Structures are given as structure tokens and as C-alpha cells.
Amino acid sequence: MNDSIETLLKQHQLRRTPMRLEVLRILMEGGNEAIAHPELERRLPNADRITLYRTLKAFEEKGLVHQVVDSGNAAKYALCRDHCTEHQHHDDHAHFHCQDCGKTVCLDTVSTSTFQVPTGFKVSQTHLVLEGTCSNCG
Question: Are 57 and 66 in contact (CB under 8 A)?
Fold first, then answer.
């Protein structure tokens, strides 16, 4: 897994730092689950809060992660699956938020790119969060 983490950092032109390696490891282990900043802090007890924030911001700016805002307005982070770049994210998919356990996952097969808006409107981002009960809680 370390090889793929280091490859991701190189592909996105990010320096290799202990914090970046650890955050990527956690996000990769989570699969398609989005993870909140406080949860990352809990999993990285020796991490500096500001360094963690800057790491997530750098990952987002470089197209390595995307931010998911769930129904409780909690910002969570998930790895980008498509070929996102620092110039454009291609994370036009829905997310599912379990109302029981709080888990939020990417639904890569549910696209949000099919919405039509009135003439003259330009969509720059879409956030589609489906809510309910996940398979573990249901």
C-alpha cells in the first residue's frame, strides 16, 4: 500500500511527509467512505490540527480528495476516484449518509451530471446526499 500512496503523492505533485502518508493510508483503508476531520484527529492522536487541516486542503486543491458535506453540515473527505486534477474535480457522483451510524459513502455509480438548469444558469458544483439506513444498520 505504501507504494500506491507514494505514487498518488507523486502523481499529484505533493511532497512526501509523514502526515500526508498517514492521512492517505487512512483514506485508502476506508475505501469509498468519507471521513470527517475530527475522526482523522482521533485516528492520528499525535497530529497537529493545523497540519492536518493544511494536508486535507492541499489534497483537495490537487484533486486527490473531494469534500462531502452531509445533512448535519459536517465536512468529510473521500479519495477522488476519477482523474481529478488541481484544475478540475470530476466527483459528480452522489453520496449516501446513514442516519443511524453516521457513515457517509461515495456512490460512484449514481451520477449528478444529469441535472438540467434553466437557460443562463451555470452549475459549478453539485452536492447530492441521499439519506437513510446503510446495509450494516438496516
Answer: no
How many angstroms separate the CA atoms of 25 and 22, rounded?
5
Q: What distance in Å separates the CA atoms of residue 17 and residue 100, rounded to the nearest whole number?
A: 36
Task: Catalogue all structural domains in the chain, each as residue range(s) with its CATH number.
Answer: 2-132 (1.10.10.10)
Model confidence over 7-16: pLDDT tens digits? 989 988 999 9
Reported as half-sphere exposure (CB side, CA atoms, 13 A), residue 135 has a value of 1
pTM: 0.79
Q: And the C-alpha cell for 56?
A: 486535507
Cβ–Cβ < 8 Å for 53, 61: no
In order of 5, 93, 111, the CA distances from 118 in angstroms are 42, 21, 19
**Contact between residue 66 and residue 77 where contact means Cβ atoms under 8 Å apart:** yes
Amino acid identity at 3: D
